[in-house]
Amino acid sequence: MVEEQSVDPRALRTWTFITNHGHVLLAVARNPDATVAQLADAAEITERSAYRILADLQQAGYVRRRKFGRHNVYEINPGMPLRDPTVANELVRDLLSLVTDADTEGHGQPLGVARPA
Question: What pTM was estimated for this model as a whole?
Answer without folding.
Answer: 0.73
